[in-house]
Amino acid sequence: GGIEGIRHWLLDVEGTLVLDKDYAPVPGAPAWFAALRARGDALRILTNNTTLTREELASALARAGFPVDPAEIVSGQARLLDILRERNLNECALLGSDALAATLTGSPGS
């Protein structure tokens, strides 16, 4: 039963870990996050943020009390890149952030 038995977590960023794009932590969330880490739970951080690379987001989260590896962050950007590759769409126009461009071109910081 209940939540005690859960060992794999998908955590949204805004509203779950942090209050908003200022990355102020949700009260109590850093301690809860640390407890999940301490018992060895598997965590994935979900985001639809397109203004930060996974590395930048990992840094922002760490400053807010949530140490994560960029590889633990699941983003729409990364999934979009997978879809473009699967469909062999090597050329397209992008209107978006520098972080999104870095992810889609495979530049450092993606």
Protein model, in words:
There is one protein chain. With 110 residues, the chain is of the alpha/beta class. It contains four helices and three strands, in the order βαβαβαα. It has helices at 29-38, 54-63, 76-86, 98-105, and strands spanning 8-12, 42-47, 73-75. The protein has a three-stranded parallel beta sheet. α2 links the parallel β2 (42-47) and β3.
Question: Secondary structure elements and their pairing?
Answer:
Elements: E1 8-12, H1 29-38, E2 42-47, H2 54-63, E3 73-75, H3 76-86, H4 98-105
Parallel strand pairs: 1-2, 2-3
Characteristic key phrases:
single chain; 110 residues; alpha/beta; three-stranded parallel sheet; globular
**β-strand amount:** 5-15%
Structural class: alpha/beta
Q: Whole-Å distance between the termini?
A: 38 Å
Helix content: 25-40%
Biggest sheet strand order reads 1-2-3
- Series of secondary-structure elements, N-terminal to C-terminal: EHEHEHH
The coarse silhouette is globular
Q: What composes the largest sheet?
A: 3 strands, parallel
Radius of gyration: 15 Å
Put the structure in a nutshell.
With 110 residues, this protein is of the alpha/beta class.
